[in-house]
Amino acid sequence: xxxFTKNLFKHIFNYGFATVLTSVLSFLLVPIYTRFLTPTDFxxxxxxxxxxxxxxxxxxxxxxxxxxxxYYNAKSIEEFKKSYSNVINFLMIISLFAIIIFVFINNxxxxxxxxxxxxxxxxLSFITGVFTALGQFPFYILQFRESSRMxxxxxxxxxxxxxxxxxxxxxxxxxxxxxxxxxxxIVSTIFLLIGAIISAKYYLLFLNLKDILSMLKISIGxxxxxxxxxxxxxxDRIFLNKYVxxxxxxxxxxxxxxxxLMYILVCAINQAWSPIFMKTANEKGEEAKKIFNKSxxxxxxxxxxxxxxxxxxxxxxxxVMGSVAYINAYKIIxxxxxxxxxxxxxxxxxxxxxxxKKTKYLPVATVTSVIVNAICNSILVPLIGIYGAAVTNVVxxxxxxxxxxxxxNKFYGIKIxxxxxFLTLLIQFIIIGFTSYxxxxxxxxxxxxxxxxxxxxxxIIKYSYLxxxxxxxxxxxxxxxxxx
Length: 484
Description:
The chain crosses the membrane at residues 12-30, 50-72, 84-105, 120-141, 153-175, 181-204, 216-235, 255-277, 298-326, 332-354, 361-380, 386-404, 416-437, 443-465. The chain is built from 19 helices and no strands. The protein is mainly α.
């Protein structure tokens, strides 16, 4: 393995380990939260998280993506210092005015932006979103300098700070949703200060509006794509906030916490797959496409099995991870895992657009998917509430995957075995639908039946379309050997 590849995998491990570790630990904390937070609290927290993410995306005006261009094009460290300081000082001024104006308007308004959410929580969430956005810029410097280990350590430390404060505010102090919002605010403030220390040697009292305008000309084009990406994740919450009770949003949010199991798997595969894809595409030429086509079959097999496991045992997982108030979340979980399944297929394909440098077409996929999401949510959420939002997410991610797949066909040509994909999903739907009508009171008998159905599923898959398939092809090591 070359020095470049080793270096690449080292950084992937550092970033990936931090991401997976914090995701797994966050999932394990769910039982604590559900014991001390009502579904309404969970709903408020979900809306607050959405709001913080919106603010952190909008307030930076896309300058975060522009900064990397100036870093790599800078002829000296002094030149980059001016660019970095320009961005930071400009955004600090903008942020100060934004906070003052928002808090004033919000306090004077005769209504709340979000139902069942106090003005105090909304104000605190806005400030947290601003601090989170500003505090992220020093972390970009760590990425530019390839300081992935420090980046990963700080990410894990940030998670532990948030988790400890959450538990203190929620368990002994019993502050509910306000407790979590306070912990978000405190941690964002702490890491804003840590970020200031990290980037101190890059900071100057410097502001050049002409240079800022030049940067904004580049960054403005990124904003629609960033907002569209955000909308894919959070648009359902906006419709749910309008049409359903906050307790229902809490159940929906809890179901997504369980769906994190699939999200962790998909992200881990994506982090491992991206460098393998680029290396193989560069070195194998047209032969690489055959490897990628077979890898897509592997993905459908592995992730399909995991999806079936989570769906079949969704009720049992819900009972273990949550209180009785969240029991209906298990009905939402299959829709969420299917959404992540197609999100993973999107990750498997999208690398081809980066390889062929056709990323300018990505907004076609994201914006179209957002439009589909908005239309479906506007129709389904008023009719069937959180189930409408769940169905909409499945439709949205299928749309996103299919458009990127069509773009891939035009510019590169990786194939997805749709016959295998359809058969896999059809069998899973039949099994999940069949078990949903079981009325077996003995939990052990029910688990045995579900395990037997999984074995039956594997037998059907094996003899339907995996006759030419070698089980050794499922290993990451085998993928890397093919890439080498």
